[in-house]
Amino acid sequence: MGVFQRLANIFRAKTNKLLDRAEDPRDTLDLSYEKQLENLQKVRRSVAEVATAKKRIELQAAQLQTQGAKLQDQARQALTQDREDLAREALSRRAAVAAELAELENQHGQIAAQQEKLTETLQRLQGQVETFRTRKETMKATYTAAEAQSRIGEAAAGISASMGDAGMALQRAQDKIADMQARAGAIDELLASGALTDLTTNTDDIQAQLDKVASGSQVDQELAQLKAELGTAPAAQLGAGAGGTETAGAATEARPEHPEVNP
Question: Is residue 97 part of a domain?
Answer without folding.
Answer: yes
